[in-house]
Amino acid sequence: MPAALPPSQRAPLTVLTRLYARNRPAIQRVLISLFVAYSIRTSYRVFRPSDTRTPASSSSSGQDAGTGAGAVGGRPGRKPRVQVDALFYSRLATLLPILIPSAHSKEALLLAMHTFFLLLRTLLSLYVAALDGRIVAALVRAHPSAFARNIAKWIAVAVPATYTNSMLTYLQSKLAIAYRTRLTNRVMDLYLGTDAERGDGAFYQLANLDDRTPDADQLITLDIQQFASALAAIYGNTAKPVLDVVLYNAQLARNVGAEGLVLLTVLVQSSAALLRALTPPFGALAALDSQLSGALRTTHARILTSAEEIALLSGTSLEKTKLDRSYYALALHAAHTLRLRAWHAMIEEGVVKWLWGAVGLGVCAIPVFFAGAVGAAGRDLGARTEGFVTNRRLLLSASDAFGRVLYSYKELSELAGYTARVSSLLQTLEDVRAGKFEKRLAATADTALLGQRGRVIESDDVEFRDVPIVSPAGEVLVPRLSFSVRQGQHLLIVGPNGCGKSSTFRILGGLWPVYGGLVRKPPPNQFCYIPQRPYLSLGTLRDQVIYPDGRDEMERKGVTDGQLMDILGYVDLQPIVAREGGWDAARDWSTSLSGGDKQRIAMARLFYHRPRYAILDECTSSVTLDVEKRMFDHVAELGITLLTVSHRPSLWKYHKMILQFDGQGNYIFAELDAERRLALQEEKQTLEAKLEEVPKMRARLEELRAVARDREGYTAEAAS
Questions:
Q1: Is the pLDDT of residue 584 over 70?
Q2: 303 CB burial (10 A radius; 0-12, 13-18, 19+)
Q3: Which positions fall inside the ABC transporter domain (predicted)?
Q4: Which residues lie closer than 8 Å to 514 by C-beta, 6 or more apart?
Q5: Cβ contact 608:567 at 8 Å
Q6: Does 441 reside within a domain?
Q7: Residue 631 half-sphere exposure, CB side, CA atoms within 13 Å?
Q8: What CATH number did the domain enclosing 417 receive?
Q9: What are phi and psi of 224, to 5 degrees?
Q10: pTM higher than 0.85 for the full model?
């Protein structure tokens, strides 16, 4: 046995002990106050911005000076920074008013209910911890009646406890769905919505004029869902553990004294700092995983879209290589992430479960070994057992809660990744709707021109006045285009590929911005665009003719199926109704109809809508000349003004004006004399045919000359 302390040393120690015991209530209050302040500071440090003054903190809303007001450029494809920093909280603050629009919204009510059940679960946990101690104490004291009574209470508390846990899971899922619905509606309003001030949705510009979001489908379908689920879970995974830490430790302080709590806190915080330093960048990993998944999905979509061309060109081997490359990039990233999660989980469990558990056992033993210090002297074995079990239960709960607080930083980092991608999508959609684009520019791009804007005025006629035709890459196709078309003045547009024919139509249709000059045009509902490869939607055969109208709109217009059949007669397509199974037959029409049938369906669509202007872009290249004549004759009967791109001489007679590009930035706009142009075309073809015969005639002449020389030589030899 250790030797007793000498009286000279025992006296000061006794004095200190008595002095401490006399002032212990005040010391306890001070220690608890320090603990509360430290807990608040620690919680703030867990969730505080990691860096608020880094150069990358400029959000996507703060574009480079060269990308404002419709300029194309900047740094397309740059990765958004993913950290729990001021930028993350700024993005989240921008998204929250969309997710919870008001205090009276359904989402606010769900959040309030979720908060109530989180608090109720904590109170139930405190009650169960105390009840657990009383059950064990009844066993130690051998009191069967107390044991049975406490077991009955245990069974009774199971009803609210299980209901509370189920409601928490249910409300969290409901919150995730509500958040996703709100955010999806907002994104779809920008992506496909239409309003009077901002025009049509940004889906076309997002795909063709901006490089920031090449995987919009991935963002809308998957990333929004992941963001909503992570945000719905993060509230319960942060608020509940923080509340648990405070309440459990407060109860522990009352049971074992604030001294043990302070000691435990020091040890836990030091190991927690180590855990945080060793935590991998899970937010960046989550963002990169979404990006790689989107790239793989896009590659698959491209193959399905161009399946016929790939099959005919025998490109399956190359496409498989591209798919393999995309998949293995995703697989390697997933394997890397799993390895990081595995070792991080091992370290986390070793610290949180085993190290903190060992320290906690020592804290729970304080009332047993230092009964006088904590006011537990004179308690019997049952009381000490009850206190130990209760305190251990509280300690395990507090340790688990604190571990979840630290673990929530990892979840918060993942949420930061989803937030960065969703916020980037919203910001890009807003920019595109406002005419601000970021596009990789051609070497010959005119950046000064891209910062300008022309005027667009609604008018009955079509007029371009000094309008530059600029490609999305910034290449100037035509420096200044001027022409005008009044109703009834059908315009034919010709020229080589890439000269600006389709670009002019895209500006006219409002798809491309006007970088200068003046454009006068009718409202969009007075135009109908018929491309070379028409779009056929999912739906019935009737839907293909009346697109984008539905059956209700058709009936409101007073159009019947019989009138639709008459329309098909003008495009020589009436047999298709019986052949395909009637007007209500539904299938993938883009694959079941031939190219000629698709073009005739598109022309029938034009006859159904009867707009004032029709933009026809090589839309009769797959139909016969007699069907083409019938269709254009009916267009003339309906009084539709045509703006046509075609190289077919058979269409010249239907047009009065011609806009001819030379591919070098120059053009001619003049009246079209169809007969004279046809005559010149025939003469040109005749001369070209004769010129093709010239080499053959020259070769034959040389052969005849050679034969003649041979005969002259033979005659000379015979004469000699």
A1: yes
A2: middle
A3: 462-707
A4: 453, 454, 455, 456, 467, 507
A5: yes
A6: no
A7: 29
A8: 1.20.1560.10
A9: -65, -40
A10: no
